[in-house]
């Protein structure tokens, strides 16, 4: 495949010539309530997003219930400072028995529903639900065991590229391709929560597209929608944002998640950015052609008697464009009128004596 080759996912086509594919990541923002999860699905559908994504793991499939320091987050600046990994994932995970009702509801609302599996048992489970594609999270993008399992499904793959070097990514892309992945999209990702604009480095998007010759998008952890809109201008074909109903409700990812109105703005503004990119063009649009008549030209703005010279007081550049071009202004000044000319007359050469 190449960077420009369209990727079909159910009824959506992902390519540089199609509107950006917007993925709403629910993550743990359901706060362990299925009712809230289904409410998020409805809010995401109402926003116009194209896909809803979950994360498929349990505390036991993603980490180990250990008490030593290595199982704690000791970064004082982290959202999850001093959290034990096992307890954090127990708080954030989506019960597997919720996947089907959430997926069914998302599909009923017209969206693609899929997930990020975090181990091979999650892939088997998601295959049983017939998901149309897979997402690989940044922290799993060097897990070759998982990459092989996902690639062997033959389904399209979207892989985030955070916390990985170019060499890591090159190796991972080769593993995916060697195991049957034909449709691959990479997402530029800065794996900090939230990410700052200064560390987002959107200019990596076109470089990554050229380097791996695959479509590239953005997994965006910055606040707001500005980075996502800018990413579209750099060719991003997929945009992924975490979503919640209300940040004030709290939750493991709520601090950097969009609320429904913000997600709707993201869908609208990224589509506008995509449509506005267009092509290199200096050609007037048909509507601009009609507006040409309202450009400026030379008009007589005070009554002029025959033999009277044209001056800055009786000739001006005004709208509309029915008079002489303004390039002739200096040529006209000082020359005389052959006849009386009423104020408001578009100046033409037959009204200017060849003195």
Automatic annotation (TrEMBL):
It is an enzyme of class 2 (transferase). The keyword Glycoprotein does not apply. InterPro entries: AFP_Neu5c_C_sf, Aldolase_TIM, PseI-like, PseI/NeuA/B-like_N, Pseudaminic_synth_PseI, SAF, SAF_AFP_Neu5Ac, SAF_PseI/NeuA/NeuB. It comes from the Bacteria. This is Pseudaminic acid synthase. It comes from Spirosoma endbachense. Its EC number is 2.5.1.97. One of its GO terms (biological process) is carbohydrate biosynthetic process. Residues 297-355 form the AFP-like domain.
